[in-house]
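Lab notebook, bench 4. Still working through the backlog of constructs that have no structural model yet. Next entry is a single chain of 150 residues. Request: give me the structure tokens for it.
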Amino acid sequence: MSSNDSLTDPMSFAKKMWGNMGFSLPGMVTPTLDVEEIEKKVRDLKAVESWLKMNLSMLQMTIQGLEMQCVTLNAVRAMGHMGSNLTTAASGGNDDTQTNALGIPGGADALKQATMWPWTMMQQMQEQMKQAAAAAQQAAQSDDEPKKKP
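Model written out:
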């Protein structure tokens, strides 16, 4: 009956026929029938997929970093070029060359002011904070004074 059983179940017949060979022939063998082996292959392939995704994201971050570095270096070069043009124009001695360098009168002074913007902003913020503190102190003193009754 066991031989009759294998004839009615084609999967067991294929498993017996190819399983006894001891090696697998890709494309000539039926897919594996072991669920655990399939799950293991799925886990392995998902691990490879996540590894490839991680490498892709690292590659993209490296490309973005290099692009930012290139843009920064180009900006520094452009500012250096502008600075050298301004010093050349300033050494010329007349205001017309300074006007032509940046397109505004007193081009060297404008560039110096532009480079000091963080310092200027911090000073303005400090002055505003002092004014706000003084106003709050005056308000607190006026609340502390006893009210005069007529």
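Notes after review: Residues 35-92 form the longest helix (58 residues). The mean pLDDT is 75. Flag for follow-up if needed.
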